[in-house]
């Protein structure tokens, strides 16, 4: 079996937005090529291919995605070009040209496993299902996780920032809403830290199965959580199902461009005194997110950094 590969030329400014757009269209895996310096470990964890030419970032980026041979590629490409034009309304998306080629079949679902090994976030051991706990890590709070095709192993700085803030602010029997739950890792850890109930939402249907599987393997009963697909920003049905003024903590580990429209919705989900925990924010977007948080009527409590990433924590006072 062969795959059709499509390589979209865009800008480093727009590459993350383009990736998010492709995922919204149901494309589950992408590759990013640019000249932004990254370590080898970051490349392996994030499945990013860097252009072989050396030199300073020239602002150009390529986002590649794959479709099976039998998929209606013309329909998909039409939707991609349509969405790209909408992106141009608020950011420089570059040329937008798309090159097509074919590649041999690869086991994309399992290929990433060679890069995911057990590691610790402070005193929490996060371990994939195919590894054994090392003797020196016995006794630590252990989380078994297999994200499958959903985002969220805990290795990324943004996830670790959220984990630490949830642990700091969660209280016994709290209700937590995890928007963009991915593998379910944040809701699962909140329950391990003492929360009473977790609700997760995600655009990716794969997140539903991944969350159920990870909760089960970590001994968390289904009566303590639920997870649903849908866009909480734009879909009233999802908003109603999630509920308003219902949560002690709302967490969102999502791109800054999404956090801006999401934050007012998240604020409505919080109880008075509830805590809003965000990450997924690159350093240069920190002011934009902080401003959005304040505009939503929330009080900024903390802004934390890890590497080039930022977490903003706020409180709903009314």
Structure description:
The chain is α/β, with parallel strands linked by helices. The protein is 31% helix and 30% strand. It has ten helices and 14 strands. It has helices spanning 15-24, 40-46, 73-87, 108-111, 157-169, 185-192, 206-217, 236-242, 256-269, 286-295; strands at 2-11, 30-33, 60-68, 98-104, 119-121, 124-127, 141-144, 175-179, 197-202, 225-229, 247-253, 270-282, 298-306, 309-316. The chain has a seven-stranded mixed β-sheet with strand order 10-9-8-11-12-14-13, with helices on both faces. The chain has a four-stranded antiparallel β-sheet with strand order 2-3-1-4, with helices on one face.
Summarize the structure.
With 318 residues, the protein is an alpha/beta fold.
Topology:
Layout: E1 2-11, H1 15-24, E2 30-33, H2 40-46, E3 60-68, H3 73-87, E4 98-104, H4 108-111, E5 119-121, E6 124-127, E7 141-144, H5 157-169, E8 175-179, H6 185-192, E9 197-202, H7 206-217, E10 225-229, H8 236-242, E11 247-253, H9 256-269, E12 270-282, H10 286-295, E13 298-306, E14 309-316
Helix pairs in contact: 1-3, 9-10
Count helical runs. Answer: 10
Average pLDDT reading: 86
Number of extended strands: 14
Pattern of helices and strands = EHEHEHEHEEEHEHEHEHEHEHEE
Uncertain segments are: 40-54
- Helix fraction, binned, reads 25-40%
Radius of gyration: 20 Å
Q: What proportion strand?
A: 25-35%
Sheet with the most strands? Answer: 7 strands, mixed
- Strands in their spatial order, largest beta sheet: 10-9-8-11-12-14-13
| Alpha-beta classification | alpha/beta
Distance between the amino and carboxyl termini = 57 Å
Shape: globular
